[in-house]
Amino acid sequence: MNANIYAVYGASGCGRSLMPVARQQLQRLGVQADLYFIDDSLEDSQTVNGHIAINYQTFKNLDATDKHVLIAIANSQIREKIANQLSIDGIQLWTVKADNSVMMDNIEIGEGAALSPFVSITSNIKIGKCFHANLYSYVEHDCIIGDYVTFAPGVKCNGNIHIEDHAYIGTGAVIKQGTPDKPLVIGKGAIVGMGAVVTKSVPPGVTVVGNPARILEKK
User: Fold this and answer.
1) Quick one: 144 and 123 in the same domain?
2) Which residues does the Swiss-Prot or TrEMBL record annotate as the active site (predicted)?
């Protein structure tokens, strides 16, 4: 029996980008353990980028004292569904942070986060579970971020911003700083488009695009 085994759930682009980060973290901590991909499209095991890829049922049946899984799925609804299944099956969510990610003071991050290379999380910040922060993203001071939030590469989240559950912030988006008495709010399930410049709060469930960002009306 293995004492601990680890896996990155998802062998597509997101998972393959995070696998080296996960591998480096284990090396940095001096942890010697088997490290797998989980891919539910597979019937038989395969090798992906040097790691064995298996489906979830096969992973669940592996004999180990503890199992740890990073969910590398961009779709936040699927991420939540998988997280709930892992909890039912007694498998731990795994937080992975790149060697060169920057973490400052008074930060609280929920389990299952994925912090890619060159991510910065500054001071007095609270972040929920299964947060994805892609390359070169940052979160400035006094922000509150909910569960299953996704930052694409290069997101600039300035101070005093509240981002609610399942929001998606696109590549290169800039969110203007709020104030302590009036934080800028990105509503639950909102999508901020690539390169958008957000200057005011965004309602739940809408998509905003452009500079300044405006609600994208459905035709």
Assistant:
1) yes
2) 141 (proton acceptor)
| CB-CB contact of 176 with 158 (8 Å) | yes
Percent of the chain with pLDDT over 90: 96
Residue type, 51: H
Q: Which domain holds residue 50?
A: 2-94
Contacts of 112 (CB under 8 A, 6+ apart): 70, 71, 83, 93, 94, 95, 129, 130, 131
Q: 219, 197 in Cβ contact below 8 A?
A: no
In 3-state terms, what secondary structure has residue 103? strand
CA-to-CA distance for 17 and 164, rounded, in angstroms?
25
Averaged over 102-118, what is the pLDDT?
98
CB 160 within 8 A of CB 184: yes
**What token pair was written down for 3?**
């004492």
DSSP bridge pairs for 70? 8
Give the dihedral sign, CA 14/15/21/25.
Answer: positive
Residues designated as active site? 141
Band of residue 1 on the pLDDT scale cut at 50, 70, 90:
low
> Which tens digit of pLDDT belongs to each residue from 35-90?
999 999 998 999 999 999 999 999 999 999 999 999 999 999 999 999 999 999 99
Q: Cα–Cα distances in Å, from 67 out to 59, 63, 82, 197?
A: 9, 9, 14, 41
The angle formed by the CA atoms of residues 70, 75 and 77, to the nearest 5 degrees, is 90
Q: Look at the block and give the residue holding tokens 């309602």.
A: 203
Cβ count near 62 (within 10 Å): 14
Residues 71 and 90 in one domain: yes
